[in-house]
């Protein structure tokens, strides 16, 4: 399971929200590399770090206040749970440019020192933070490095989206 994010134009975000059936075509086209021009923005695959990052941002497994929760909640859901479930993990969501900028602010505060301070392997494992490897003491430094690298990539991605006033579509796959 991984978390996929892509910068899209505001117009394309509006099209997807107005016609949620289009999100299924978007996912098919994303997989084949044939996206429409308005959806060819930078993309980011957070691999298996998404849930760990969410925990570091919110201190929770699935909740948290906006904008800290934006990896897993918030924004505008594209369609409904049954008809528009993109990969079996729920519908895609869209963050509008103002939400992207707000999310960037909280991710920018997730520095290396802050990641090390918030990291709690046993608590993360107890909450079943995917991929449930966090309490292996021998791997703590590797886990921290993995999360630090993912946070850095997310910061850069959100910075680019903010500068370009792009919306973001995100989903679990």
Treating each run of at least 4 consecutive H or I residues as one helix, how many helices? 7
The CATH superfamily name is YfbM-like super family
Distance between the termini: 5 Å
Strand order of the largest sheet: 2-1-5-4-3
Relative strand content: 5-15%
Task: List the domain count as a whole number.
Answer: 1
The amount of helix comes to 40-55%
Low-confidence stretches: none
Query: Major β-sheet, in short?
Result: 5 strands, antiparallel
Q: In angstroms, what is the radius of gyration?
A: 16 Å
Please provide the ordered H/E string of secondary-structure elements.
Answer: EHHEHEEHHHHE
Number of strands: 5
According to CATH, the fold-level topology is Hypothetical protein yfbM fold
Assign the CATH architecture. 3-Layer(aba) Sandwich
**Secondary-structure content class:** alpha+beta
Protein name: YfbM family protein
Organism: Hymenobacter negativus
Pfam family, one: DUF1877
